[in-house]
Amino acid sequence: MPPSPHPGVHTDGEAMGSLSRSPRPGAPHTADATDGGIGGSARQEVRPTECFPHPDARIVVAGEPGVLTGDELAARIGSATQSLAALPPGPVFCGMRNDLPSVLRYLAALRAGRPIALLDPDLPPRTLAELAARFKPAALLGFTRAADGLRRARGGTPEPHPDLAVLLATSGSTGNPKLVRLSRSAVLANARAIATALAIGPDETAPTSLPLYYSYGLSVLNSHLAAGATVVLTDAGLLERSFWTMLDEHRCTSLAAVPYQYEMLRKLRFDPAEHPALTTLTQAGGRLRPELVTEFAANAKRFFVMYGQTEATARIAVLPHDRLATKPGSAGLAVPGGRLTIDDGQVVYHGPNVMMGYAETADDLARGDDLGGVLPTGDLGHLDDEGFLYITGRMRRIAKVFGVRVNLDDIEHLLRDRGPVAATSGDDRITVWAEGLDTDGCTTLARRLGSELRLHWSGFDVRGVDRLPLLGTGKIDYSALEART
């Protein structure tokens, strides 16, 4: 390997995960890919000319002095790389916190070609033990309910595929999740595409407002480090006063949140004008009510609606801020380097950030690229004549009421005017969970659904809850709701 131009940073793009050359931030893009041969080979070439993180990228730890950047950041990654090299072969399970040790461990694994699973650090012991038994990691590091340490020998387990870099749990998985297998080139291609689509430049500063084991949260870290921008590491939540103190202290310019967080911000009468440096808001992780999109967009310099899946590393489409008014309800255009098609109503994404495939056991980690850059998303939708995507539902989010098929996403969309709700399926009926609803309100809502869907209202079991259960990512925990029925 040739010597690196920066201490602690390798320049072999495929082996060490360097970024390929990207258009300048803010350059225009279209829904179709013209970069890297999308439509032919869906994998982009990774050129060994730019390093990840960008040499000018900066990491700040909230509440601590100093900035980690340049040679010092590279040296810290190099030290973490040496620690990983001392471990036995195989993937590493990382309890991925919004802190510096976790981030350095992640960046070191990318550099060293060591597959790393970024998991909820607070996983229950039984869930973590079951995952470890299935995937046979070399070590467990950073978990609340498990001591750091090596695992027993992997026996005759095949070594992971050399392209494999990151493992993430499937969105919303509990108990027995599959892991999404992501290559280094996929992770870095999506980081570059997001930085381009959002025009992230070196003057941008983003806080870790979402968990880093969640693909959306991880994409904020990756895209800013790829662009030479600043990331402020904090584990404070949006409902904590300390978060907003930190945001102002470090003059954060952007904030990423999921729909439920925006619902809470509205209840708190959040006003971006109270935070002068904050110019950009981004939203993904589900559909945000149109009136909230309009409200937040009107009060922010830039508001981006985005669509993505863990299986596509993070982002699939972005709706430019200046098209919000003309494309209401749209999820946007495919990210640079990607392409969207519709196959029998299903949204299909083509791009270099598509996962290699799923993994259910350690043997699956040795598999190569099963999908070839083509991802059937499982979402229903359509494209307009300009290539803007509109999501209409989820293929598997279908229930039957008295023999009639009903899309659960349509139920939630229909009730968007009454605040946070969630719909789950039962035996020939639909259960609707609504925050803050009393008995009379539940009956009224059930009759409304029956009237609007032309089905008998007894097919809708409406239940009031104080708060909808949430995953660590801020998304609704549908599994927890289904367990209550």
Q: Compute the average pLDDT.
A: 86
Shape: globular
Which percent range describes the beta-strand content? 15-25%
Residues in helices, as a percent range: 25-40%
Please outline what is shown here.
With 485 residues, the chain is an alpha/beta fold. The chain contains twelve helices and 25 strands. It has helices spanning 13-16, 70-85, 100-112, 125-135, 184-197, 215-226, 241-249, 259-267, 290-299, 408-414, 439-453, 478-484; strands at residues 58-61, 68-69, 92-95, 116-119, 139-141, 149-150, 164-169, 179-183, 205-207, 230-233, 254-257, 280-283, 302-308, 315-319, 333-334, 339-343, 346-350, 357-359, 374-383, 389-394, 398-401, 404-407, 421-425, 430-435, 460-465.
Task: Provide keyphrases for this structure.
485 residues, alpha/beta, five-stranded mixed β-sheet, 26% helix, disordered N terminus
How does this model look, in words?
This protein is of the alpha/beta class and about 475 residues long. The protein is about 25% helix and about 25% strand. The protein has helices at about 15, 70-85, 100-110, 125-135, 185-195, 215-225, 240-250, 260-265, 290-300, 410-415, 440-455, 480-485, and strands at about 60, 70, 90-95, 115-120, 140, 150, 165-170, 180-185, 205, 230-235, 255, 280-285, 300-310, 315-320, 335, 340-345, 345-350, 355-360, 375-385, 390-395, 400, 405, 420-425, 430-435, 460-465. It has a seven-stranded mixed sheet with strand order 6-5-3-4-7-8-18. Strand 21 (about 400) and strand 22 form a beta hairpin. Helix 2 (about 70-85) packs across helix 3 and helix 5 crosses helix 6. The longest helix has 16 residues, at about 70-85. The protein starts with 12 loop residues before the first helix and ends with a helix. The model is unreliable at about 1-30 and about 35-50 (pLDDT under 50).
